[in-house]
């Protein structure tokens, strides 16, 4: 594939060897244009031919710099697949795509029948699981890109009730550990599908027989870069059991509290507070809830000795002591105590993640971990969306030099890999698909946030600025 050559990190490489910002902007815009279906954006046409939930949130964040209208449409299309119980499904299926183009397909999920009790839509086919709640944050940022258009279309008034219902679902139906945090009931829900964090809780799951499903992902990716057949069999078993239980929560043997999932929920609670204020209500209660959730995140998932947030196995009750990029994403939160942010920055630059030393983008998993693999899906490669989240978090807490370096590394690597899905964290070699939508979208976002910019989209300074009636763009 073009642009998939290995790109070794060399700080001495001259600046003319990487794409200029204008060229990079044009190329990123072409990726998003090519992946646009007319109402939403596919992650990539081959491997991911439908609409994915957290992909669309990240895509909207980038699209707002090209077309705020298209960014609004992206989120509106996704929300058209929302269930009456509030969940936003992780896939909204395109009916024009053949069933065998992706597995699990609509006839596996059977959302309109198996999800009837939970209020699945009848006219749109979806999956039955969810993905991280980036959507309110995306909606707020999309509004800020063109407040006049947003107000004229009633964009926030339309999406706010749906986003509030989504958060209620997570905070009430998914508080499976009774500790105020949302649990995921399938590895695909957290977004980092194949992370070693899931190995221990997944070991309790009897895999579905290999003959009972056909993996369409292997038609587009090397088997050594994808989840194993054993892991995939467990994913299928979990999804089958959840479907056959009518998508009722609390019935699965797999339930995990994840730091990134909950950090994104907290960031989106802050964003919902901003949206409420824009609509003339008060955001005080939502900001207070976000602070309570931050306290619960620290109480349940923070390990001060290891200077890391860990997942918690709700069924077993213990922390899962695997270092993942998920444990760094809480840097996004403006309410983190300084001693925790300082510790996370040390962990980020230390031997386990090596940022700025042995790696330029943030590895998805511990460089020193036994399960580390620089190419296998979420078991080591660096992803652009998680590096974007960490960059935003560094900027939120005043780590401007580190944020600027990570920003430049993301832009350079996106350009030299043709907007790859993910990369080898050491060499920058492209892995997975190229022309990947969230890579292009977040490249655009970083191009519109220059070096030295101390305004994070989730930072408290940004919210204070909007309260004062400053520039919302």
What do these coordinates show?
This protein has 473 residues and is mainly alpha-helical. 43% of the residues lie in helices and 5% in strands. It is built from 18 helices and eleven strands. It has a four-stranded antiparallel beta sheet with strand order 3-4-7-8. Helix 6 (135-145) packs antiparallel against helix 8 (155-173) and helix 12 packs antiparallel against helix 13 (284-301). The radius of gyration is 20 Å and the shape is globular.
Output the strand order for the largest sheet.
3-4-7-8
Radius of gyration (CA) equals 20 Å
One letter per element, helices H and strands E, the order comes to HEHHEHHHHHEHHHEHHEEEEHEHHEEHH
* Distance between the first and last residues' Cα: 37 Å
Residue runs with pLDDT of under 50 for 5 or more positions = 1-18, 453-457, 459-473
Biggest beta sheet summary: 4 strands, antiparallel
Overall mean confidence score, pLDDT: 89
Helix content: 40-55%
InterPro entries: 6-hairpin_glycosidase_sf, 6hp_glycosidase-like_sf, Glycoside_hydrolase_63, MGH1-like_GH
Biased composition (Basic and acidic residues): 464-473
Organism: Streptomyces plumbiresistens
Region (Disordered): 453-473
Topology:
Layout: H1 21-34, E1 51-52, H2 53-63, H3 68-79, E2 91-92, H4 106-109, H5 111-114, H6 135-145, H7 147-153, H8 155-173, E3 183-184, H9 187-190, H10 199-202, H11 229-244, E4 256-257, H12 259-278, H13 284-301, E5 302-303, E6 308-309, E7 311-313, E8 319-320, H14 338-349, E9 382-383, H15 384-396, H16 400-416, E10 422-423, E11 430-431, H17 437-447, H18 460-467
Antiparallel strand pairs: 1-2, 3-4, 4-7, 5-6, 7-8, 9-10, 10-11
Helix pairs in contact: 1-17, 2-3, 2-6, 2-17, 3-6, 6-7, 6-8, 6-12, 8-12, 12-13, 15-16, 16-17
